[in-house]
Design goal:
mainly beta; Thrombin, subunit H
Length: 281
Amino acid sequence: MDLDSNTKQCVGFLYADDLDDNGTVIKKPFGTCFFIYAHTPRDGVIFYLVTAKHVLRDMQAAAGTSMYVRLNTLDKAGVSYIPLPRDGWHEHEDTSVDAAVLQLRSLFGGLSTQFLVISFSGVLETPEAVPKNEPGHKWPPHEGDEICIVALFLQHPGEGRNHPVFRFGRIALMPDEQLPGKYGPSDYYLIESQVYRGHSGAPVFVHWGNLMYLLGILVAAYPTEEEIRSLPDRTEIYYNLGISKVVPIQKVVDILNQEDLRKQREEAGAPEVKKPRRKKG
């Protein structure tokens, strides 16, 4: 699989102020996010930050009051912690969906940060674009197709720069029924890949040929019965079955098509886009 060197820039790391073991306030990493944009004639570009709802909840429940997205600076010499609001996030009307979206508005005004954004129109066009660009394939993909995850690695987020890791695997199951989840039964795709804490909220891509298509948001791994084992030195070892849940990207489209967000784009002159058809199989 050939990955563009810019692919690592498609994610940000989510932090919140919390307390360490000594009671000192620190910026603690909680998960991964990625970005979607829509072009509008009036406002130029509208950005959206996308992550897992449970990552947002964990940050909101932290001991501190401030939340951030950590991004690389353009000068290649450091990172910026961009403050995020605690409120004003958008969630799916179906409360079982583990996804959250924030319209960034002017948070990045005047800041020299570096991140790669995914086109909303491109996401919408994926069901039609796949058979045209990838003969022999259709959307949604099937079991066995190769996937790629770009995510925060808690053990090494990077000192002076964000250093996301790539995880690889394959689609394990495209269920035609809902599966149990953190917020109740919901729609998920299952992938075969080892994922761990900090990966939640990461984008999951299907990789065909030279193109990658956004499959959804990584939200959870199936744990073993002994999920966490603490060693004498207080090191925690996490076990999972190597099967993980992905919230379908269609759920993010649903959120972005909620009336208030859709009207904002329409008022800014964004071209009308059709909601992608949900195809079976």
